[in-house]
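Sample entry (143 residues):
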Amino acid sequence: MILVNRFKILLDTCFWIALYNNGDQYNEVAERIANQIEEEELFLPFPSLYEFINSKFSRNRELVFEFENLLSRPNVHLINDSEYLNIALENFFRQHKEAYTDLSLIDEVIKLMLSDRNMRIDYFVTFDEGLMNFARSQGIRSV
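Predicted structure, serialized as tokens:
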């Protein structure tokens, strides 16, 4: 048996929105990325799932079943966010007290996941420039 080292890739909500929305400005890029990473270890934070599934996506039965099949693949891992929630909430309120910011609570959770050395994420897929820069500051390549 040959063991293959797969990249660990964390996926942001905007990736899923672009992938499943043909009218999205990043749709073609998301489709290329999806093809390139389909065999890698894919990590989906539950907050991103909440955000994505609560979007217009949930109104399309065919896409919902397609997404369900994707989530059932053995290389797809759902990340529980419970260990990050309290700190993320504190960070969210602190950031908003110090200056105007467009960061969301979900962004704060994702930043904590990216900085968690136990997760050892190799790549972060997002179209959010701020989160992309944060990932790079943690030594994580972003796509």
